[in-house]
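User: Here's a structure from my thesis project, written as structure tokens. My advisor, Dr. K., wants to see whether a designed sequence matches the one we expressed. Can you design one independently, without my sequence as a hint?
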């Protein structure tokens, strides 16, 4: 057995690599001595078969050696340490990643299956060779599935169809995907399988004659093109025919039973061939797909078109030889090792973004059964490609809605989503996205969060998981208790006893200042991260300064005399005036705003509004850099503030705004105006004011104008 394997890999591996494989073979042979498979064959046949499959994909010696050892930890006396000692940590880690966890106790067989899938995918994200070995393992097990009892055959076939075939599809390994699907289909629905086999076989000679006639006609059209090409027929696999039959009325409506593939040397030739095909044969509307300009996530690239041939519709696929290699082997086509180091493809990490998403799911989901359903759901979907307003391409599962898009951009965008515009038109959030849509998400800071009804309309498993996580965050009792404990810890961290804050007036004041209806709601907000405990405690300490004498604060001194001008006189820091101060540009605080200071590294203190998103979402590790600050109201200084005015787009609207600013003696620092397609004008205005009252009075005057719809302070 080993000689045949070594001969196979000798075409691309050196002598040292082949010796490593031989050593792994001998170790596996000794470890599995006396073990038999369900078929009665020697067990060693199985790992060697895996090694053949991986050798065909031209994997490195480490991967092939690990495949020979893949069942050693699970099924023999040898341990991880034994393999690490003999073959090194790299091979041992791969084998450990493949080891099932059957020695642990599980509630159900479904739970065991889910845990195995979870471990496989986590390991895959660390070293993708784990997944290739696992796919090879499943492929050989499916090839010999007839030796299992019927109930286990069906269970394995269903698992393969749910998890492993879609996984091969996601990685672009179609050679393995097609075989896994067809074998699974045969054992899950034997009657349908043989019915399709019969129909395909009945008309095979006639179809081959039609294909050959089309190929000869196409060759005549291509002979003067000067393009070097190769034309071949393309086999249609039984399970893919079955799936198409679920969508069309009858067998004769499946266009791509008749299909040809044209291979060329470069991309330019692909499009040249396409032009010739469409000139010679009438294209069928809606049947053209350009996967070269917009590749699938598994790196698949090709031009697909269906044209009317001499005897009916025929599908034509056009791609380069390199694209064809990737179409057959997927990510494996880029997974080559040379002299012990991986030759990385330029965009390899981008192509594996899905693997990182798997890791994110694993971190967020505790229940293995839920994780199994997440993987099942997202592996088996087709894609829809849409654009952000900035022109970035976002791919989502087919059937996705704007909510899926919002959560793909960021969880906060999804949680605050109140609507969507598709191609500049407002649509319901249940709208099904189509390829090429330009998607703009409408958000509101006042949004109460996602609706449970969204779980019934979103498509992506990842989106559903993020929505469920949001509801977990708002589980009241747990958050209330957690919030109370966080506040108590913050009080102690600042060096005070809990008794120091026992006066109810402090908490009544904080509730009022932060706009909570009662203490319970404030506890809950602290518990799920809606507000920092440090902000609340510091606000109490600042506004009840007589009860909390200022402590000495080691603050960064200003480095340039006068560099902050009157700002230094406007703010008092921890009881000290004239410190290095700057106003945060993210929230533009003005006198009268509730504020908090943040100690920067080397630049003094930055003053933020207490409701600033950057302060609310500050890392817990940076809480200690927050510091009490207060306005010195006698200071004579001007401050920048920024407002967004939305109004009906009509002639003279801007002049009307300018008159208000002139009447109120407001200095306009910058103004950007933009008109939308919805006849709404947007004015982003940066102004100078002396206080929050002056700003509030200005906003009130602008709001009185009849064409003004909304004013937002930014």
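Assistant: Designed independently from the structure alone:
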């Amino acid at each position: 057995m080993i000689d045949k394997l070594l001969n196979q890999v000798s075409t691309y591996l050196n002598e040292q690599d082949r010796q490593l494989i031989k050593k792994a073979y001998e170790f596996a042979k000794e470890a599995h001595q006396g073990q038999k498979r369900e078929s009665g064959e020697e067990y060693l046949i199985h790992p060697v078969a895996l090694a053949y499959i991986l050798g065909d994909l031209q994997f490195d010696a480490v991967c092939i050696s690990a495949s020979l050892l893949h069942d050693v930890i699970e099924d023999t006396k040898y341990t991880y340490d034994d393999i690490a000692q003999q073959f090194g940590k790299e091979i041992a880690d791969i084998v450990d990643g493949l080891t099932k966890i059957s020695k642990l106790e599980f509630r159900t067989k479904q739970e065991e299956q889910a845990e195995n899938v979870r471990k496989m995918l986590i390991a895959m994200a660390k070293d993708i060779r784990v997944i290739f070995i696992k796919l090879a393992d499943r492929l050989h097990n499916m090839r010999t599935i007839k030796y299992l009892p019927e109930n286990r055959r069906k269970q394995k076939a269903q698992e393969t169809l749910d998890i492993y075939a879609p996984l091969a599809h996601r990685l672009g390994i179609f050679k393995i995907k097609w075989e896994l699907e067809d074998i699974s289909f045969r054992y899950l629905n034997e009657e349908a399988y043989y019915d399709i086999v019969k129909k395909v076989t009945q008309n095979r000679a006639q179809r081959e004659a039609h294909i050959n006639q089309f190929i000869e006609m196409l060759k005549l059209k291509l002979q003067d093109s000067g393009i070097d090409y190769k034309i071949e027929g393309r086999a249609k696999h039984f399970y893919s025919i079955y799936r198409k039959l679920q969508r069309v009325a009858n067998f004769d409506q499946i266009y791509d039973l008749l299909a040809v593939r044209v291979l060329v040397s470069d991309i330019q030739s692909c499009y040249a061939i396409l032009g010739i095909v469409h000139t010679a044969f009438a294209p069928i509307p809606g049947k053209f797909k350009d996967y070269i300009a917009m590749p699938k996530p598994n790196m698949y690239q090709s031009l697909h078109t269906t044209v009317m041939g001499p005897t009916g519709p025929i599908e034509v696929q056009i791609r380069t030889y390199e694209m064809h290699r990737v179409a057959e082997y997927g990510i494996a086509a880029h997974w080559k090792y040379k002299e012990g180091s991986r030759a990385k493809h330029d965009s390899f990490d981008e192509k594996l973004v899905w693997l990182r998403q798997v890791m994110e799911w694993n971190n967020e989901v505790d229940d293995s059964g839920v994780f199994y359903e997440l993987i099942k759901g997202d592996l088996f979907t087709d894609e829809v490609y849409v654009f952000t307003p900035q022109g970035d391409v976002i791919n989502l599962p087919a059937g996705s809605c704007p909510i899926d898009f919002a959560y793909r951009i960021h969880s906060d965008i999804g949680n605050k989503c109140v609507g969507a515009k598709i191609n500049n038109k407002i649509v319901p959030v249940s709208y099904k996205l189509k390829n090429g849509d330009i998607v703009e998400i409408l958000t509101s800071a006042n949004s109460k969060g996602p609706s449970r009804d969204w779980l019934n309309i979103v498509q992506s498993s990842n989106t559903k998981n993020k929505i469920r996580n949001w509801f977990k965050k708002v589980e009241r009792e747990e958050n209330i208790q957690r919030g109370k404990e966080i506040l108590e810890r913050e009080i102690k961290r600042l060096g005070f006893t809990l008794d120091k804050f026992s006066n109810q007036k402090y908490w009544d004041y904080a509730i009022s200042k932060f706009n909570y209806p009662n203490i319970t709601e404030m506890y809950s907000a602290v518990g799920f991260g809606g507000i920092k405990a440090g902000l609340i405690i510091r606000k109490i300490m600042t506004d009840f300064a007589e009860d909390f004498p200022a402590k000495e604060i080691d603050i960064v001194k200003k480095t340039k005399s006068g560099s902050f001008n009157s700002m230094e006189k406007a703010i008092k820091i921890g009881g000290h005036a004239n410190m290095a101060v700057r106003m945060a540009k993210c929230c533009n605080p003005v006198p009268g705003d509730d504020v908090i200071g943040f100690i920067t590294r080397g630049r003094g203190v930055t003053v933020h509004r207490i409701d600033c998103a950057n302060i609310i979402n500050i890392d817990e590790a940076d809480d200690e850099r927050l510091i009490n600050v207060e306005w010195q109201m006698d200071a004579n200084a001007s401050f920048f503030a920024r407002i967004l005015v939305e109004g009906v787009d009509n002639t003279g609207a801007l002049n009307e705004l300018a008159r208000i600013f002139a009447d109120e003696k407001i200095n306009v620092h910058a103004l950007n105006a933009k008109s939308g397609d919805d006849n709404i004008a947007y004015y982003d205005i940066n102004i100078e004011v002396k206080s929050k009252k002056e700003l509030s009075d200005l906003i009130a005057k602008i709001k009185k104008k009849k064409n003004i719809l909304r004013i937002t302070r930014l």
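When you compare it with your expressed construct, this may help: Residues 101-107, 336-347, 551-566 have pLDDT under 50 and may be disordered.
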